[in-house]
Amino acid sequence: MTANEVRSGAITEVLNRTGVETAEIRPLSETWATDVFNLDKMEEALSKNAFKAVKKTVQTGEPLDPATADIVAAAMKDWAMGKGAKFFSHVFYPLTNITAEKHDGFIITNADGNAITEFTGSLLIKGEPDGSSFPNGSLRMTNAARGYTAWDPTSPAYIMQTANGATLMIPSVFMSWTGESLDKKIPLLRSNAAMDQAARRVLTLMGETDIAPLNASCGAEQEYFLVDQHFAAARPDLILAGRTLFGAPPAKGQEFDDHYFGAIPERVQIFMQDFEDKLYRLGIPAKTHHNEVAPGQFEIAPYHEAANIAADHQQLLMTVMKKTAAEHGFLCLLHEKPFAGLNGSGKHVNWSVGNATQGNLLDPGTSPEQNLNFLLFCGAVIRGVHKFGPLLRAVIASASNDHRLGANEAPPAILSVYLGDQLEAVFEDIKNGCVSVSSDGGEMDLGLSQILNFKRDPGDRNRTSPFAFTGNRFEFRAVGSSQSVSGPLVAMNTMLADSLNWIADRLEVQLEGGKTHAEAVAVVLKELLEQHGNAIFGGDGYSSDWHEAAVSERGLRNLPTSADALPVFTEPEVVELFESTGVLSAVELNARYEVYAEQYINSIAVEAKLVMELAKTVIYPATLKYASELARTITAAQELDASFDTGQVKVIADNANKLMETVSQLAVEAEKHDFADTEAHMHHCAKAIRPLMEKARVYADTLEAEVDDAVWPLPKYREMLFIK
Fold first, then answer.
1. What is the band of 438 on the pLDDT scale with cuts at 50, 70, 90?
2. Beta bridge partners of 288
3. Which residues make Cβ contacts (< 8 Å) with residue 289, sequence separation at least 6?
4. What are the DSSP calls for 367-436, one per residue?
5. Handedness of CA 184, 190, 192, 194 (dihedral sign)
6. Is 68 in contact with 53 (CB distance < 8 Å)?
């Protein structure tokens, strides 16, 4: 079967699809967290003392004694086996953006050779996968392979249901035998502890006495594309790289804005309902879903949760999403830019901090100028973004996310803070030493009696800001759709801890000098804003004027590619930040730099190989065949004294030749490996290989628009995006 026959066959299969049987959707009350061993189920299964100990660990992070772990393990095993599970797995999150699992059976044999089940506290607490085969930045070598997983009691175990059975999944941390973090969960837990400690310092200085443990919260808006599996199977680039390396824009794209928030296609709606029903069984609070801007693009957003739980749930959500999409005949694309010329996909991370006693400390209330705790915490965020903006850029750096950042669809690679008119005026007053009463947004009155008036928000939203205040939280909009939220959360928690400690040091001096709380806050924030106010920007982040002014006038750094951003992990100020807060050692931080740099280099290497392969074995042969047939047809017509324009043949030949010339140049650059260091290798990928890939694409996409549609081998954008 030729490539074109595969494409035409895919269209036929999709158009003749009979549909997927609608899954039974039961009431939320019957499905919510039914597959989660949460506190409610623990209370039923454990003794009062054991449950009290576990609950304290979950809520405060206090250590759990081994005897209680044995009791929990026995109850967890009985619950899981009652739901059909014969295996358990320590689930962990290595330095990739995926989830790793090692499955073990409950089964053992006794002296008589009979099968029995066993699951002790020691098995619950510790597992032992290979520590060298996962990305580790040279922390582990093949001959020093031992690594450990360890149960995280603060994240509930759950049952993963599949057609082949059920497995008990135990969220875990992952470390080397020498004790370094090899995962994304350990630094997240450490960063939250550092933030909690620093926040308590500030709140205590502000006169608070009853202070519950503080936690960061996260609500991540997940964007994604759905493509029918028949089309995806005929696109090697989608299968191996997650994006189309070639593809001419369709006559109609997203310019009519008719897909955004439009009626959800029935087949997609069935998938969404099935997907969300599975999420509810796993205790993941899916809140909203809708069509996104680009055709074939959609979004799901869970309700906010504690950061550690939210990060685990995000990983689980991506796993369940891809699995459920496949059941409905879709390939779920989480790549940040699967289709050129259309909006890419992000994962907006909504982040705040708070506790049970002081509440959300990023909620300004009705009078933000009088809410001293809010002003201090919001000021700490401003300082953190200004001081560690490059770090925030580094933690969302990847080969795929580089395609979005800085374009007119996603925030720029320059980190700034948007506060909104009301808060920006409040902080400007503080800087100028004259705080006035802030104004609210007023009332929305449309002059229509049937439409009730309502309170307008005190500030508009700025969709061009990478880090925007949105009422009672900050939204980090530059995170990529395929990425773990742990990295951004670690950076935000850690920079906040650093800034809160900076604030606490200065508050102590002012308060010891006899100033009131309000006076001390005013002095500290004035100093903070004078040093770090340049990070505040409420204008158009997409404009070229801002890009120029941000660097030349405000001293902000523009890091357009991952090759520019990733070396930030090795900068002394960033190393000091993580070491001083106890979140990551210098060795652990450098390992992350090496891992992420290697992933960047490998991603571009895979794409370069695909570009060359597709150009030489798919596009050029189809083009040559068509051009030859067209030339013969024109020659035959001319022999009959009919005159035809030969311009199209010349255009095809010219672009085909240029495509192959570019592929030859790409082959030369892709073979180069003699670089001074990792950073030099990354810059070679960014400045030599990537431009040649884009150049090859221009020629190939031009050919797609010239070659007979009946012989073009690859499924086109109009088919993949619009046929569902």
1. low
2. 301
3. 264, 272, 276, 298, 299, 300, 301
4. -GGG-HHHHHHHHHHHHHHHHHHHHHHHHT--TTGGGTTTSTTS--SS--EE--HHHHHHHHHHHHT---
5. negative
6. yes
Residue where the block lists tokens 């080397």: 176
Domains in the chain, CATH or no CATH each: 32-183 (3.10.20.70), 191-599 (3.30.590.10), 600-722 (1.20.120.1560)
Instruction: Tokens for 160, please give them.
Output: 């993963």
Please give the full DSSP string across 492-516, using - where no structure is assigned: HHHHHHHHHHHHHHHHHHHHHTT--
Q: What is the pLDDT of residues 226-251, one digit of tens each?
A: 999 999 999 999 999 999 999 999 98
pLDDT of 147-177, one tens digit each?
788 889 899 999 998 877 899 999 999 888 8
CA nearest neighbour of 380 among 494, 254, 237: 494
567 DSSP assignment: G
Q: What is the signed CA dihedral for 685, 690, 696, 698, rounded to 10 degrees?
A: -170
Q: How far apart are CA 64 and CA 119, in angstroms?
A: 17
Structure tokens at 719: 């088919």
Q: Who contacts 27 (Cβ-Cβ below 8 Å, separation ≥6)?
A: none
Count helices and strands in the chain by DSSP H and E runs = 24, 21
- Determine which helix (DSSP H) or strand (DSSP E) holds 349, and give its type and residue range: strand 347-355
Count the alpha carbons within 13 Å of 381 in the hemisphere toward its beta carbon: 27
- Directed axis angle between helix 372-395 and helix 185-205, to 10°? 160
372-395 and 517-532 helices cross at what angle (nearest 10)?
A: 30
Which tokens hold the place of 247? 């593809």
Which tens digits make up the pLDDT trace of 21-33? 666 677 888 889 9
Distance, CA of 187 to CA of 648 (rounded, Å):
59
pLDDT digits (tens, 9 = 90+) for 488-530: 999 999 999 999 999 999 999 999 999 999 999 999 999 999 9
Q: Quick one: which H or E segment has residue 181? A: none
- Confidence class of residue 612 from pLDDT cuts 50, 70 and 90? very high
Task: Indicate if the pLDDT at residue 202 is higher than 80.
Answer: yes
The answer to whether the pTM exceeds 0.90 is yes
Which amino acid is residue 346, in one-letter code? G
Query: How does strand 165-176 pair with strand 85-92?
Result: parallel
Written as six digits, the tokens of 49 are 């003392």
Q: Which residue in this structure is represented by tokens 């020498």?
A: 178
Q: Phi and psi for 555 in degrees, rounded to 5?
A: 75, 20
Residue that is written with structure tokens 């029903």 in the block? 277
Q: Is 420 left (phi over 0), alpha (psi -120 to 50) or beta?
A: left
Q: Are 80 and 37 in contact (CB under 8 A)?
A: yes
Distances (CA, A) of 302 to 109, 271, 299, 425, 604: 43, 17, 10, 32, 32
